[in-house]
Automatic annotation (TrEMBL):
Species classification: Bacteria, Pseudomonadati, Bacteroidota, Bacteroidia, Marinilabiliales
Pfam families for the chain: Cytochrome_CBB3
GO MF annotation terms: electron transfer activity; heme binding; metal ion binding
Organism of origin: Labilibaculum filiforme
InterPro entries associated with the record: Cyt_c-like_dom, Cyt_c-like_dom_sf
Keywords, in A-Z order: Heme, Iron, Metal-binding
Ranges for domain Cytochrome c: 45-131
Domain of life: Bacteria
Protein's name in the database: Cytochrome c domain-containing protein
Length: 132
């Protein structure tokens, strides 16, 4: 019973924190990235590679399922986003890759942390698996 109460308190605390965070401003993505196509096939091997990179670099803020509920998310001023949303999935792969790698504001730049173009696109493929 105590365990269920703790879970309820944690859930309410997270919901309150998300409500306090502002929504990110609209991203300005260069046209070349908007039209850029993902060169990787969306196969199991590529998705698994993307998952490994995501878990290492992205999970702490964006959460295991891309809902913006990672352990560091509550400390951010801006909600880190919901990768399972229709709004997220309406973006092109190039837009997602640009935002994920170049970052802005509280979203760090990952050009040196993820130098492999293959791994960058693999993360996009993995993020595409998040659904509600």
């Amino acid at each position: 019973m105590k365990f269920l109460i703790l879970i309820a308190i944690a859930t309410i605390g997270f919901a309150f924190t998300v409500q306090q965070q502002k929504k990110a401003a609209v991203w300005e993505v260069p046209a070349e990235y908007k039209s850029m196509e993902n060169p990787l096939a969306k196969d199991a091997a590529g998705v698994n590679t993307g998952k490994m990179v995501y878990m290492k670099h992205c999970r702490s803020c964006h959460g295991n399922a891309g809902l913006g509920d990672g352990p560091k998310a509550a400390r951010l001023k801006t909600f880190p986003g919901d990768f399972a949303s229709a709004e997220f999935h309406a973006q092109t792969d190039g837009e997602i890759m640009y935002k994920s790698i170049f970052g802005r504001d509280e979203m760090p730049n990952y050009e040196t942390k993820i130098p492999s173009k293959k791994e960058r696109w693999a993360v996009v493929n993995y993020m595409r698996t998040f659904k509600k």
